[in-house]
Amino acid sequence: MQTSTIQGTKMHEDRILNFSAGPAILPESVLEQLREDIWNLNGSGVGVLEHSHRGKEIDTIFEEAVANCKTLAGIEDSHEVLFLQGGASGQFAMIPMNFLHQGRTADYLVTGTWAKKAIQEAQRIGDAHCAHDGSATLFDHVPTVDEIDLSLDPAYLHYCSNNTIYGTRFDAMPLASCTKIVDMSSEMFSRPWDYTGHGLVYAGAQKNLGPAGVVLALVSKELMETARDDMPTILSYETHAKGGSRYHTPPVFPIHAMGLVFKWILAEGGLEEMERRNNAKAGLIYDVLDDCGGFYIPHSRPECRSVMNISFKTQTPELDKKFIEDAAAHGMSALKGHRSIGGMRASIYNAFPAEGCKVLADFMKEFARTNG
Ligand SMILES: Cc1ncc(COP(=O)(O)O)c(C=O)c1O
C-alpha cells in the first residue's frame, strides 16, 4: 500500500481527507497499533477488547495513560486523571451536581452551543448565572474582559476554550479569581495551556484524543474535597477517583486508544510541536480566507480564530453546497458546516496532515477563481 509521510503523520493513500469535527481523524500509527492490539495485546494471546479490566495488562494501560496525560498537562499530584463515560454532555450535569452547592452561584460564559447546553444543565440543578452571552453576534467571538459580568462570589467559572461549531477560541484563560472549569473537548492537547486555578478540565475524546466512548477529566483534589454528597454514587467524581476509573467496567478500548494518542503526541515533540504544526496548518486555510477578495466569509472574528475548527461560507447556500460537493469529488470529506450555522467547517485536529490543509487551501483558491 502506498504511503506518504508529512511531519510525522503517515497517510495511507486508500484513506481520504477527513475534515470531520468528531468523531475525527486519528494518527494512522495509532490505528495500526490498535489493529494489532485488538488481536493480541502485547503478546498476551488475548485481545484488548477481551481482557478483564482488572488484569495486569489493563493496569499497565491505565497507569501509562495517566502518567503520560500528567506529563502533557504539566500537572503532578494536584489533580486526579479520570476516564469517565456519558460524553462531555455528561460533564455538563456532573459538574453542578458535584460542585454547585445550594445558596451558591456558578458563572458560565456562553460562547456557543455547547457552552449553552452546559449552563442549561446547571440551571436544572442550581443557580447558574450567564456571565456572557454571545448569541447576539451569533457567537462570532469570545468575550473580552469588559464583556464578562461575573457574579459576586461564584462557586466556579465554566468556559469552553474552543467552540467547535463557530470556530472561535480563547487565546488565554479568562481572568477570574474563582475556580475555573473548562470544556476543552475540541482542542485538548493541541497547544500548551495554563491550568493554574482550574478545578476541572474535561474533554470528550472523540475529537483530538481518541475514539468516542470516554471523557478525560482532570479534577483537582482540592475541589473534589468540597463536593456535595447528595448525588448518585456513579455521578460522583470521588467514586471514580477512589476506583481508579474502574468503579464500574470502563470502556477499555477507547482508553487504550487515548493512551496511544498521548504517547504519539509526546513522541512527535509534545504540545509545543502540536501548536507549531496546528498554527501552520490553520494558517494555510486562513490565508486563503483573508486573500479571496470577499469570496469567502469566515465566521470568527480574526482575534479569536480557532486553529482546530475553521468555519466559513460563501455568498450563497447554493454555492456552499457546490463547494462541499466539488470538494468531496476531490477526496475531501465532512466539510459541511454544523446545521446551526450552515456553510463549511474544516476540522483539522492534531492528527490531520499539513498536506491535507494544503490540498484544501489550493482547492479553495481554485473554487473562488472559477465561481467568483
Ligand atoms: C466543545 C464541546 N463540548 C461538548 C460536546 C459534547 O460532547 P459529547 O457528544 O461527548 O457529549 C462537544 C461535541 O461536539 C463539543 O464540541
Explain what this protein looks like in three dimensions.
The protein has helices spanning 28-39, 56-73, 87-99, 113-125, 221-225, 237-242, 252-268, 270-290, 317-329, 354-371, and strands at residues 3-6, 9-12, 17-18, 79-84, 105-110, 127-133, 157-160, 162-163, 168-169, 180-183, 198-204, 215-220, 297-298, 309-313, 332-333, 344-347. It has 372 residues and is of the alpha/beta class. It folds into 2 domains: 32-267, Aspartate Aminotransferase, domain 2; 269-371, Alpha-Beta Complex (Aspartate Aminotransferase, domain 1). The strands form 5 sheets. A 7-stranded mixed sheet has the order 4-12-11-10-7-5-6, sandwiched between helices. Strands 13-14-16 form a 3-stranded antiparallel sheet. A two-stranded antiparallel sheet has the order 1-2. The structure holds pyridoxal-5'-phosphate (PLP). Residues 22, 87-89, 114, 160, 164, 183, 185-186, 204 line the site of pyridoxal-5'-phosphate.
